[in-house]
Specification:
mainly alpha, 72% helix, disordered N terminus, single chain
Length: 141
């Protein structure tokens, strides 16, 4: 094999990560309205971009290579196990709110999460209203 064949080419993984990040930003721009936000719009979009970039990195640099490793029978199975464990660790870190505790990235990610949760609560209340029945008392804020 030549040196060019052995060099790492991350264009596919990087492309997947960028697409996922752009989807997060586009969905935030299209679905999160002013009534859901408590800060400027750019904070929410930057937070969605940061969160999307992290999820895109997980998908692009862990899941895509993991799939390639699992389908390639010439590689040892411990590579797949390592990829699966790293995926699990990264997803637990993301879901536990580790990113929101970072000093420079945290405020924007928190702004996006607050706006997304307000939107989810509004959608859930609309769905409950369509189902009918007695309404619980309004939450105290």
């Amino acid at each position: 094999m030549t040196q060019a064949e052995l060099s790492l080419n991350f264009f596919v993984e990087l492309g997947v990560g960028i697409v996922v990040m752009l989807v997060f930003v586009a969905l935030a721009a299209l679905t999160i309205k002013e009534r859901h936000r408590d800060v400027e719009r750019w904070h929410v979009l930057v937070g969605a971009g940061i969160y999307g970039a992290l999820f895109g990195a997980v998908i692009g640099f862990v899941i895509v290579p993991l799939r390639a490793i699992v389908t390639d029978t010439s590689l040892p199975p411990q590579y797949a196990a390592f990829g699966g464990l790293s995926f699990l660790a990264i997803m637990i870190a993301l879901r536990s709110g580790l990113i929101m505790r970072l000093p420079f990235l945290g405020p924007q990610v928190k702004a996006w999460r607050r706006a997304a949760l307000r939107r989810a609560i509004e959608n859930a209340q609309e769905q409950i209203g369509r189902l009918g029945g007695p309404h619980p008392p309004a939450p105290k804020m």
